[in-house]
């Protein structure tokens, strides 16, 4: 169900949605990161029970607004993962505002070299309200952790980007979002957020899990995007080009 606020003003309405959503997001991600649960094969790709996800979502919404505590140990990885995705996609308006969403599309698919295009990403993300940006950072950081376990869970950077892009990068125009999802473009944008430093401030090699130098980043991004092409799920895209200047700050 959509998370709806009961307060009268639009500002309070949105604030309540984000507070409740982030509370649920943090509880789900904290639980999933414990006891090797991220190693579960097909995490986020295998669907949990719709009935269980709906019931647990409602229980956690109630808890987040002062209700009874919820013990996630009574659930399973795929149900909790389903609640996490359902909570993010239920945020209204969508988590990333349209102006930032459109700017990231232009940065990803427009002309130009890597460094200025990544700078356009940073500018777009800097316009996202702090509460929304905090949720986005938290989830993308968590998704790096999912990728780190890909030898067990079979969720490499491409798979994670495919299954999460529609939840995190959803415009207010549902038809446009559907077309972008079908073309693979949403997944391509999320992959850039995971690998580059534009959101989290550090780079991330989705194979070795280390930080990347300015010189390495363009080739890694190109290699990862090429995997979409080989899988037939993404239309032809120009290579990332690195010409002079610092493209990104390497990190852990």
Automatic annotation (TrEMBL):
Gene3D superfamilies (UniProt xref): Rho GTPase activation protein (1.10.555.10)
Residue ranges occupied by any Rho-GAP domain in the UniProt entry: 15-201
GO function term, MF aspect, one: GTPase activator activity
SMART domains, alphabetized: RhoGAP
Presence of the UniProt keyword Metal-binding in the record: no
InterPro entries reported in the protein's UniProt record: Rho-GAP, Rho_GTPase_activation_prot, RhoGAP_dom
GO CC terms: cytoplasm
Repeat keyword on record: no
Keywords: GTPase activation
SUPFAM superfamilies in UniProt: GTPase activation domain, GAP (SSF48350)
Protein name (Swiss-Prot/TrEMBL): Rho-GAP domain-containing protein
Native source organism of the sequence: Hemiselmis andersenii (Cryptophyte alga)
